[in-house]
Specification:
D-ser_dehydrat-like_sf; ten-stranded mixed β-sheet; eight-stranded parallel β-sheet; 11 helices
């Protein structure tokens, strides 16, 4: 079923009291009926995660134009949001497909009609291989997975044995780094794996893959040099395996932290090879950006706009310099930095009153500790707006996320549905 058709069907889903954050009056209405009442964000209960429509559209345009200008395709990592409505936004902007991380995510994307998928992971579970074998009967479905060892290749062959495979599965050889995550340890090992793939009757060598983001979490000279060196090794693998491949090749790298280095290192090869190879960036967090980790590390931070915001209410003020808010680890991301308090208002839609010198110092399951060196100008019941860090661990805590119109308007124009 086409993605647009499935998304339209979601508008007929009925809302209930089990949907976190929704106003009580939404209970029993369909999404379409509720949005027709032009709800305001101020009606929603705290804690709350909200998105900004204008910021989302801006970021989708910025990252797509950035890739187009450098000869890169964009296949954003859909696992960041697991929100088909946001996948559609980037596909409409020019993305050529989606990247995903698990077989279950691939199955979800296929249920929404996504026609081009890369799983940035190995695919060895027999049930998942059988599912992909069945999906490949669709001639319009393009699928690629990664391999990082000969043993992985053999596991795929074993899992595919006896299945009616309409065509070989495209696989990319993943290059890793010493002490890092997945990936072949070194160029020679990657080439050996590529040779084994090329000899497989059920797999097709489709290129080279890697993830440079696991090499560092800052922009120190040592980390940037390590990323450049790793990307150069990816090109070495690509050059070594080109003669083994029969058909189109892909080279793919790029999270959201070092994407300019991907473009820089790949640029000479992109210019030399022209259309002979597809060069794919997989940045997923760029659509949302943030006020924490990516704000500090993204090379295009000034061009992107944070598109998500948290809201939590003061429920306790036990000491002059301490307030407890009603949002915690169950509601907001915290693995790449704690929420950042921006301001206080009587409701999320009101003009913010700045909170000078305040910071969130800890999160419990359902509480945030807001502290300051001096007295906090806060009253019980006031709402604090929070900048968030790391989109990849924000969306999984919410089934429905309100989207405001943006530009100063807090009118809710959409409810984004997630599928984790």
């Amino acid at each position: 079923m086409p993605l647009q058709t499935r998304l339209a069907a979601l508008a007929d889903d009925r809302l209930s009291a089990a949907d976190k954050g929704l106003p009580a009056r939404a209970d029993g209405l369909t999404v379409r009926e509720f949005l027709a009442t032009e709800p305001a964000l101020a009606e929603f209960w705290t804690p709350l995660l909200a998105l900004d429509e204008r910021a989302l559209a801006h970021n989708a345009s910025v990252i797509q134009d950035w890739c187009d200008d450098r000869g890169l395709e964009l296949m954003p990592h859909g696992k960041t949001t697991m929100a088909p409505a946001l996948w559609q936004l980037q596909l409409d902007a020019g993305a050529t497909g989606l990247t995903l991380a698990t077989p279950g995510q691939v199955r979800t994307a296929r249920s929404f009609g996504i026609a081009s998928i890369m799983i940035a992971n190995t695919l060895v579970a027999p049930a998942a291989l059988a599912f992909i074998a069945g999906e490949l009967a669709d001639p319009d479905f393009a699928f690629r997975s990664w391999v990082d060892s000969v043993e992985t290749v053999e596991a795929m062959e074993h899992g595919l044995a006896g299945l009616a495979l309409p065509r070989p599965i495209d696989v990319l050889v993943e290059l890793g780094g010493a002490g890092g995550r997945t990936g072949a340890r070194g160029v020679d090992e990657a080439v050996r794996i590529a040779e084994r793939v090329a000899a497989s009757p059920v797999l097709r060598l489709a290129g080279t893959a890697g993830y440079e983001g696991s090499l560092g979490h800052d922009r120190s000279p040592a980390v940037l040099d390590a990323v450049r060196g790793y990307l150069a090794e990816m090109l070495a693998v690509h050059a070594a395996v080109r003669g083994l491949a029969d058909g189109e090749l892909i080279v793919t790298a790029g999270g959201s932290a070092y994407l300019e280095l991907v473009a820089e290192v790949f640029a000479p090869a992109i210019a030399e090879e022209g259309t002979g190879t597809r060069w794919i960036l997989r940045s997923g967090a760029s659509l949302l950006h943030d006020d924490g980790f990516y704000h500090g590390i993204s090379p295009i931070d000034g061009e992107l706009t944070p598109a998500m915001r948290g809201y939590a209410r003061v429920v306790s003020h036990p000491e002059p310099g301490l307030a407890l808010l009603d949002g915690g680890k169950r509601d907001f991301p915290y693995d790449e930095g704690l929420p950042v308090p921006f301001g206080v208002a009587e409701a999320p839609s009101a003009v913010e009153r700045q909170l000078a010198g305040a910071s969130v110092t800890a999160l419990n399951d359902q509480h945030a500790y807001l502290r300051a060196d001096g007295p906090l100008d806060l009253a019980i019941g006031e709402v604090v707006s929070l900048g968030l860090s790391h989109p990849c661990t924000a969306f999984d805590k919410w089934r429905l996320i309100p989207v405001v119109e943006g530009g100063g308007s807090d009118r809710v124009v959409a409810l984004v549905r997630t599928f984790f």
